[in-house]
Design goal:
alpha+beta, 3 domains, 15 helices, GIY-YIG endonuclease
Length: about 425
């Protein structure tokens, strides 16, 4: 394929999966937070330097691409796994086998569990999982999932909508109370009830309904799951089971609005060894500073700096700036002014990373200020969608922080910025 051919595909700026094809053969399956941006990246001039010769060869061999939008990045994750399993594309599986991938299994038990499994521990023909000298029968296997980190985060998000057990040993319930042997097993059961994932009077029938929903979702059948939930909601309302109807409605809403920015990864970038998201190994505190601005018709411009220390906001370190040198609604100029003034305070501890609100333009502006002052601090940027929800994080990995850290810092800066701006406006500041 050539770059000029991309125009005819009319790729949307939404999450989804894409398939490179050579004739009728699927040679690669991928997922994206933005189908349009991801596909464009395959035709960059420096592709061989950033992605390597294997990807260049795949793009060259393909003669067309098909794509499938998904409501969320989370659904793109599970849909990608389903399509890899279906087509076994050479670009995804060459040089690998089932043993090197991760899978998710649903156990064939009275109280089914949802388990992450390594391919080497699974007998796919017999649907058996060998784990810690125990053998478990499986009713379903999903995968392969190329990224273990994304799979773990994806299951955490799914569990928030459809709670499930993932205990290492089977569960049994008598008189509504979990019976589990061993401190570790009991602790996991208690954890599930404490965070209200399950009522104390555990209902096996209700739980099996939840597992059916999990299975549909993991199979990449999000549309069918929504239809099922709508049907359940209408039936429950008709029968005046209003709590059940409300639960189905909440699940439908969560499917479309679950926060999945933490799944947005660039799998082609390498994480700095021993750096990202693991401050304990470094023996130092991870300090992140985030910056944001707020305006009202170009007046009452204020800017803020917030601080997150090892994932915890430190409000005593927050700072507010009245924008002085910017006459119009210019976010870039405001950001440069705020950052320049902050860096003029060397008595304030410098951060390990800086997070700005916006895209590459804002990131480049911050980096220009740092470069001009001869200060080396990595910068990440949080891109928002039209509803001001996090859509993508740029530069987090290279900044040595997790995307969750970046989003937390950015969200806190935006909240604080709006609060300070409202206060300034109410006092009539100009």
């Amino acid at each position: 394929m050539q770059k000029s051919e991309l125009q005819k595909f009319d790729l949307p700026d939404v999450p989804g999966v894409y398939l490179f094809k050579q004739g009728r053969k699927v040679i690669y399956v991928g997922k994206a937070t933005s189908l349009r941006d991801r596909m464009r990246s395959y035709f960059d001039d420096d592709l061989i330097a950033t992605r390597g010769p294997r990807v260049v060869d795949m793009v060259t061999k393909s003669d067309r691409v098909i794509f499938e939008p998904t409501p969320t990045v989370l659904e793109a994750l599970v849909r990608e796994a389903a399509l890899i399993k279906k087509y076994l594309p050479s670009g995804n599986v060459d040089g690998k086998d089932d043993k090197s991938f991760l899978y998710v299994g649903i156990t064939r038990e009275d109280i089914p569990r949802v388990l992450v499994m390594r391919g080497k521990d699974v007998d796919f023909k017999k649907r058996i999982f060998n784990f810690q000298f125990s053998i478990f029968k499986l009713k379903a296997i999903y995968g392969p999932f190329p990224s273990g980190a994304q799979l773990k985060e994806g299951l955490r998000l799914i569990r928030r909508i459809f709670p499930f057990f993932d205990t290492p040993k089977p569960l049994d319930f008598a008189r509504g109370k979990p019976a589990a042997k061993g401190k570790h097993q009991q602790a996991q059961v208690e954890f599930n009830t404490q965070i209200e994932q399950y009522p104390r009077d555990f209902d096996v029938k209700h739980y099996k309904r939840t597992i059916r929903h999990v299975m549909l979702f993991l199979a990449g059948r999000g549309k069918q799951l929504r239809v099922l939930l709508e049907r359940e909601m209408r039936a429950a309302a008709k029968e005046e089971r209003f709590e059940d109807a409300a639960q189905a409605r909440r699940e439908l809403f969560a499917l479309d609005h679950i926060q999945d920015v933490s799944l947005i990864k660039d799998e082609n970038l390498l994480r700095p060894q021993g750096l990202q998201g693991d401050t304990s190994k470094r023996g130092v505190t991870l300090r992140i500073e985030a910056y944001d601005t707020a305006h009202l018709s170009g007046t009452n411009a204020t800017g803020v700096m917030t601080v997150v220390l090892d994932g915890v906001p430190v409000k005593s370190a927050y700072r507010t700036f009245r924008i002085r040198g910017v006459k119009k609604n210019d976010d870039i100029a405001s950001l440069k002014e705020i950052l320049s003034r902050r860096l003029g305070h060397p008595e304030w501890q410098y951060p390990n990373a800086i997070v700005v609100d916006g895209g590459k333009t804002q990131k480049n502006a911050a980096e220009a200020v740092l470069k001009g002052l001869g200060i080396v601090i990595p910068v990440a940027a949080v891109v928002k969608d039209e509803r001001h929800r996090p859509r993508e994080v740029i530069g987090a990995i290279r900044a040595g922080i997790t995307e969750a850290d970046a989003v937390l810092a950015n969200s806190e800066a935006h909240r604080f910025s709006l609060a300070r701006h409202r206060a300034a406006r109410s006092r009539g500041l100009r």
